[in-house]
Amino acid sequence: ISEDTPPLTLSERSLAAVADFIKSGKARRIVVMTGAGISTAAGIPDFRSPDTGLYANLAALNLPEPEAVFDLTFFCENPRPFYALARELYPGARYRPTVSHVFIALLARKGLLHMLFTQNIDCLERAAGIPPDRIVEAHGSFATQRCIDCKEPFEEARMRDFVARAEVPRCERDGCGGLVKPDIVFFGEALPSAFFEQIGKAKEADLILVMGTSLQVHPFAGLPNMADEKVPRVLFNLEQVGSLGTQADDVMVLGDCDAGVRKLADELGWRDELEKTWREL
Ligand code: CNA
Description:
One of its GO terms (cellular component) is nucleus. Its EC number is 2.3.1.286. It comes from Parathielavia appendiculata. The protein has 281 residues and is α/β, with parallel strands linked by helices. It contains ten helices and eight strands. Strands 3-2-1-6-7-8 form a six-stranded parallel beta sheet. The protein starts with 14 loop residues before the first helix and ends with a helix. The site of carba-nicotinamide-adenine-dinucleotide has 30 residues, from loops.
């Protein structure tokens, strides 16, 4: 968008104007859309960042292409690469929510979070205290797992042991022996029904915050385009992504998302509360 195109809703394209919009009470249904970039500060690598992303570091696993690690057909033939990776991503005491997670929890605490759509499977949203009924885990999570053949659920404690040893668990139901897979969405699998049930929330947004995602995976990537064009959208990301930056009320906060969120918290007068909540988590 050219610099002289005036915004339709905000007073200007800046974080200060976004904060004014929230403080004025005009943003009561904030919808947040997140990806792996909000968890990198917790020590969990994303997929696509050059050098540090998981895809750049999968060479050792001899994959035909990096995405194969989340491909169901490939998993059935060779589940080992997935379980090598699962050890890195598995939720647990090892990882702590980031400032960005806690900012979303503050939105919920203040009654402003309409819905969080996350692509992450690390469960850090819940750990940050965001109420489960405000979270759509669009790509599932590591919270549950089952046999891919007979669908029998597999016990969590046993799963944790297998993942810690990077070993492949097999269904223990009599005579089955099928591969066990966490309920995260692989390429070629349908998204959880919650995604489709809640997708209307993205249309109802009066402010959209997109954080730490390359918006490469569909249908999630379409979410930021579902609200009216007059709805302000803020991107907190290292790089420009999707259609962000093409609408009159798009505010681009390029750089580290925790740093961007701290700036917004400053403008809102929430910074002390943000830091205190994060420290005490
Ligand atoms: P991605 O494709 O790896 O993109 C990450 C995006 O975040 C990129 O645009 C980066 O530039 C950006 N980014 C990285 N670090 C930061 C930072 N500190 N501040 C701001 N921006 C940053 O990941 P997506 O989530 O877009 O891709 C979807 C996949 C990734 C989902 O299916 C996830 O399940 C999967 N994934 C999840 C995790 C996790 O749960 N933490 C980790 C790795 C991959």
